[in-house]
Amino acid sequence: MEYVIGIDIGTQSTKALLVDRNGEIVAHHASSYQPDTPKPLWAEQWPSVWFDAVLECIVRCVESAREREIDASAIRAICVSSLYGGSGIPVDNDIRPLHPCLIWMDRRATAQVDWVRERVDLDRLLEITGNGVDSYYGFTKMLWLREHRPDVWANTRYFLPPNAYVIYLLTGEIAVDHSSAGNIGGVYDVARRDWSDTTLDMLGIPATMMPERLVESTDVVGGLLSQWTERLGLSAGTPVVAGGVDAAVATFAAGATRTGQHVAMIGTSMCWGYINSQVDARHGLVSMPHVFNGRRDLYVFGGAITAGASVTWYREQFCQAEIEAARALPHGDPHRLLEDAAATIPAGSEGVMFLPYLMGERSPIWDAKASGAFVGLNLVHTRAHLYRAVLEGVSFALKHNIEAGRRGAQSLDDRLIVVGGAAHSKLWMQIIADITGYPVWTIEQEVEAAMGAALLAAIGAKLVSHDVAQGGWAKLVERARPDAGRHAMYTQRFGVYTDLYPALKPLMHRLQPPS
């Protein structure tokens, strides 16, 4: 039997899977960490944290293989997917990092957004790139570095996405996959599938800072350097496959390979995306080449910055009693106590609504100064009401993106696939079904992007055919069907949700601390 390793570098952890050529999981490992947040709305990471986690995950998977008497030579390829790395990692001529990577969550580049909107032909920028202008996008973060870290800018040879940087360290080869390039926004020509000299000139970013080699997510970038063989236990020359942006890779893992299929990835953030062959940036979503059939298909998505992060924030700040109580229970999980209590609360949380804008918000409102809010509180409400309201608020944000996506989608399937940590929650899956009106399906295995990376590795190593890859390895199971009565109530409440932001926007902006 032949095997591959799929790796996903996430915002808070790196995960790896060792799977056989049929997609059966043989071993897995995860390594946790946290991004640095030195100031409000800042989020960055030194790439050494990611690389150390990748090495640890590979070593543990290879050790597990040995325990099962699997020879390292049977591991035929590695693939690395990663979080959206925002600006990418600025590296010098020796490919040494000069500054932490300003990741997707970072919203510091608000002044640079204003500069672009005032100085650049926006219609042309949107037409070429298929993307808009916001501090979420990597090109605005690059402009922040140009203005605030001129020493870094002066010495930058390339900006490398996280997966590309890790692959460079493993292989000595520099290449950027098309999904990561497109997700930078502003500098990539989505029709030509290449860097855009036109928009780079408009923005004043030297084209030489963009790596010359662009590759498909299924391409082999290079072979594993011999310097890593002893530490990792793998054969020198083991092919390392390009991978891509984790949201698209998780969508691929869920079997989304044709127009109209759509998947919500709900972890720290939420990304809902669908497969399309065209894009219109005016609808406020993000687009990039898909990681499968990327020359033809686009992955178009929108998302909330703080999805699971909103749940974690609420638990850590307000639920110490549940945290303490869970320590005495076999499962040790405070979320189960919170969910049991929230499940007794009627749909709609008896009038409480939550806006999950705890780090500003991405699509479709694109406002770095938006802030979170509970609205509708009164003395009858408990922690359980507010916990349910958080789950409902993130689900409303999901529906908000789906409604924006409908305007540009050629078609959308009649079921919604959900992957990520949220899929562990029976209550949340039912809330999503009731709010969106879609039956909700999830992947039977707890895998997501790492499984997608493993399948990309198998394609790159020619262990699976195109037809097998199109069907995918995921086993999908139905988790929830919408209840007609609750869906009707939530549809009315969704109108309140969408009205709240424009009503509160002026006050949100006035409450922002001075920069």
From TrEMBL:
Name the CDD domains on file: ASKHA_NBD_FGGY_RrXK-like
Q: For this protein, what is any one GO molecular function term? A: kinase activity
The reply to whether RNA-binding figures as a keyword in the UniProt entry is no
Q: Which ranges carry the Carbohydrate kinase FGGY C-terminal domain?
A: 264-460
Entry keyword annotation includes Transferase:
yes
Source organism, top-level taxon: Bacteria
Q: What is this protein called?
A: Carbohydrate kinase
